[in-house]
Every structure is written in structure tokens, then in C-alpha cells.
Design goal:
This protein has 286 residues and is mostly beta strands. The strands form six sheets. A nine-stranded parallel β-sheet has the order 8-10-13-16-19-24-27-30-33, with no helix packed on it. The protein has a nine-stranded parallel β-sheet with strand order 9-11-14-17-20-25-28-31-34, with no helix packed on it. The chain has an eight-stranded parallel β-sheet with strand order 12-15-18-23-26-29-32-35, with no helix packed on it. The chain is globular and about 80 Å long.
Length: 286
């Protein structure tokens, strides 16, 4: 359990303290439910009434908020409470992750695999031949990394992630549970007798820096060449990305979307839940 006091938190989020700077918290809580020893925030005016009744020890608020009543909690005032709380959560997550290091058993790491510094390999993970991993990589239980995969620095692979051979993962990438990277693209050639012959999928998947991929999302390897997930992309859960697709920089895609083969999405595209794109399309930036 990690403990912060108001002074430390104010330094992290560059806020101004009103109240007891020494009060400590160990947990996060919603403002309407938080208890003593927890920190919360208020960004949406809809929840302002709870500011005056919350039991939270520390509350982060917008500096522009005019208080209507006295408050028992220590306040930390910032220009944007929502962004500040996100920053604090990120720092907390980073500190927790730093506590995980070393190799648990049983796990399998091929002798030819190259490991960086400060890695964490959980029990029942499998790391194949000629895998290359950078520094600060966290591999959770039941992750499979097949041969010739390249992984950068500060990567988190949550339980059950499968990365097929020859795929490339950049820096600062998070892949959530049971996502599959590099499975075969859906390529079958029709025959004269009505049957279908499988077309071998010889390419790979390239995931660039600062990408997050949700649980149970699948990204197919290219028939030839690469399926690209460009830097800054955020993918929700339960998304299907087909072979030879390119997802442009800083694009965000919500759950249950499907992108058909060889379609290219530009930069900063936004797709809502259950949207789909047919094959061989080009979607413009923005």
C-alpha cells in the first residue's frame, strides 16, 4: 500500500493546498462515497453537493470553484481537477509497477531471448526464441510472446496477451488481457469447386509508441508487409483490426468496432462503438 500526504500530492499536480498539508491518504474514492484516508476530486458541477458532505481526507478541485459552505477535507486547487487527478492516478500506477521486478517460476524464457533492465516476468509466461525486450517491461501471467518478437521500453502485457511471431511493439505500450496481436488475417481464395484455399499470412503487426490496446481486441498480421498501429492510438475492448490495415496517429476507436482488410484510417480519427469500415478504404485525417 502506498501512502501520500497532501504536500506530496500538491507537488505532483502543481496545486495549492488549503487545509492540513500533512494529512495522508492511501486510497482513491468517488466524492459521493469516499472515506477518511482517501482522496477524491470534483470536476463536474453536478456533484458539487457531495463536496460539502464527503468524508474524503483530500479533495482536488478547480481553482475557479467558489465555495458555498465550509469543508472539512483538505483541498488542493488546480486549474483542471480532472486532468490533475488523471496525472495523480498515473503516478500512483507507475509507483506500484516499480514494485514488480524479477522472474517468477514456473515460467519459460528461451535462452536466445534478450532481456532489458528492471523487467518483471510473472509465473506461467512464455517468451520464445530470439525475442528482444527493452527496459521496464511487465509481463503478467499466461502471456505468450512468440519467436522473433521485438518489444520496446516501458511495455505492460496484461494476463493472457498473445503476441504471434515477428511482431514489433514500440515504447510505452499497454496491452490488456486476452488481446491477440498477429493472428492470421482472414485470407482465403475461392476455388472452382466452391471450397476455399487458405492464403498464407506472411507479414506481421507493427505497434508504434504510446499505444493502448483494450481487452479481447484482435489485430491480424498482414498477408505481406505489415499491419500498422501508429503512435498514440487508443483502442478499446473487443475491436477487430484486419490484415494490412493502418490506423493513423492518435486515432481513438471505441468497443465493438471492426476495420476490414487493407483499409487505412488517417490521423486523429474517432470511431464510436459498433462502427465499421469496409475493406480497401481510405479515411481522411480528423
Amino acid at each position: 500500500m502506498l501512502t501520500f500526504n497532501a504536500h506530496q500530492i500538491a507537488q505532483i499536480i502543481q496545486g495549492k493546498i488549503e487545509g492540513d498539508a500533512t494529512v495522508e491518504v492511501t486510497q482513491f474514492g468517488k466524492i459521493e462515497e469516499a472515506k477518511a484516508g482517501e482522496i477524491s476530486f470534483l470536476a463536474n458541477p453536478k456533484y458539487e453537493e457531495f463536496l460539502y458532505t464527503t468524508q474524503a481526507s483530500i479533495v482536488i478541485i478547480n481553482a475557479s470553484l467558489v465555495l458555498k459552505k465550509s469543508i472539512s477535507a483538505t483541498l488542493i486547487k488546480v486549474p483542471d481537477a480532472y486532468a490533475a487527478f488523471a496525472t495523480l492516478l498515473t503516478k500512483y500506477q507507475e509507483l506500484k509497477a516499480q514494485q514488480l521486478q524479477g522472474i517468477e517460476q514456473p515460467s519459460f524464457i528461451a535462452p536466445s531471448a534478450k532481456m532489458g533492465k528492471n523487467h518483471y516476468i510473472a509465473a506461467f509466461a512464455h517468451i520464445g526464441n530470439n525475442v528482444s525486450m527493452g527496459d521496464d517491461v511487465k509481463v503478467y501471467p499466461n502471456v505468450v510472446i512468440a519467436e522473433n518478437v521485438s518489444i520496446g521500453n516501458n511495455v505492460v502485457l496484461h494476463p493472457g496477451v498473445i503476441i504471434y511471431s515477428d511482431c514489433v511493439i514500440g515504447n510505452n505500450v499497454t496491452i490488456h488481457s486476452n488481446a491477440v496481436i498477429g493472428s492470421d488475417g482472414f485470407g482465403f481464395a475461392p476455388s472452382a469447386d466452391g471450397s476455399f484455399q487458405k492464403v498464407p499470412q506472411l507479414g506481421n503487426v507493427v505497434i508504434e509508441d504510446n499505444v493502448e490496446i483494450g481487452s479481447n481486441t484482435t489485430i491480424d498480421r498482414a498477408t505481406m508487409g505489415s499491419t500498422f498501429i501508429r503512435k498514440g492510438v487508443k483502442l478499446d475492448n473487443l475491436i477487430q483490426i484486419a490484415h494490412n490495415v493502418e490506423i493513423g496517429e492518435n486515432t481513438v476507436i471505441a468497443a465493438q468496432c471492426g476495420i476490414s482488410g487493407s483499409t487505412k484510417l488517417g490521423k486523429s480519427v474517432m470511431m464510436g462503438g459498433q462502427a465499421g469500415a469496409s475493406g480497401h478504404l481510405l479515411v481522411a485525417d480528423g
